[in-house]
Amino acid sequence: MMDTSRVRNFNQIGQAAFGIPGRVIIYILYFINVTGIVGDYIILAGQSFHQIANGAGGLTENSWKLLCAAIMWLGCISLKQMSEAAVLSLVGIITSMGAILIGVIQAFMYPYRDDGLVPVLHHRATHEIARGSGVALALATISFAFCAVSVMPSVESSMRRPDKWNSVLGLSMAIVGITYIFVATVGYWAFGDQALAPFLDNLPPNAATKAAKILISLHVIFASPVMATSFALEIEVALNITKERLSRVREFAARLLLRTLFFVAMAGVALGIPFFGDVMALVGAFSMSLLLCVVPVACYVKLRGWRNISWQLLLACALVMCLGVYICIMGSKGAIEDMRKDLAANKAV
Questions:
Q1: For residue 287, which phi and psi values (nearest 5 degrees)?
Q2: Residue 79 maps to a domain
Q3: Cβ pair 342, 282 in contact under 8 A
Q4: Residue 3 lies in a domain
Q5: Residue 218 domain-assigned (yes or no)
Q6: 23 compared with 3, residue with greater pLDDT
Q7: What three-state secondary structure class fits 92?
Q8: Total structural domains in the chain?
Q9: Integer Cα distance of 149 and 293 in angstroms
Q10: Rounded distance, CA 45 to CA 95, Å?
Q11: pLDDT surpasses 80 at 127
């Protein structure tokens, strides 16, 4: 039998630690996070399909974004529990691994070179050991890579064997970390400071690149309903939108309305800020940094009691929280500046 006294999601953890204010703050951060992530996925999928179609069918880039958002919305409204998302997650993993493999091979085949032997996609690319002004923005983007952290309590609560959670979490974070480090290393080696976001835009527009763009688009289309459903379920539970309280028809209608409103907000982000890298950096800086580095540590210390934690662990907790605050402030500043420049340049075209 399920232990009903145990917290089941991120918001309940916040409430257990800091009461209703803690729950409300996490709701707000969670909503910003999911809206930005899914909005960014809509941008990526829409731009990729638009580039592949090359104007076929008369669809504009925004039309492709709305089409992708509609498919994601259908996946979201069809899910009633997180346990039903297992197939979507599996397909998402397979498609992303395929896109990564093609992208990395292409990067090795077509790196930036200025010797006339291969087509030059980038000009005057340079490599630096580090650039101080870009550290916060880089950390914000790295934070985005771990966006699934916000849905992990919900995933753990839906597992048939929650006792295996530590192993699952450790393995998944190791795979994500190693994969991103590998792709980032190859990308910077190949394209230097001229590297573009998304990564596949650095590659020549050949058949392999198109295949990779289709795979990564399918990945985000399958991943988005999982992210959106996790947040929607928590709101629905909070609003008591259940079959036990409402009839089957009214419960479905309420769920349909709520999730549709979410996707309207997400599509609005995709249409209003059409820059994948800028949205990724801003979401990573403003919300993901807090959900990844500040909120879990603050809740852990409050629930455990700082007197019951060794000074070494308290020091580590303080350093992690300081890192999160630094990413939030400085990363958001850098992301907003880049976004303003891109919006101004886009209007000037």
A1: -110, -45
A2: yes
A3: no
A4: no
A5: yes
A6: 23
A7: helix
A8: 1
A9: 10
A10: 13
A11: no
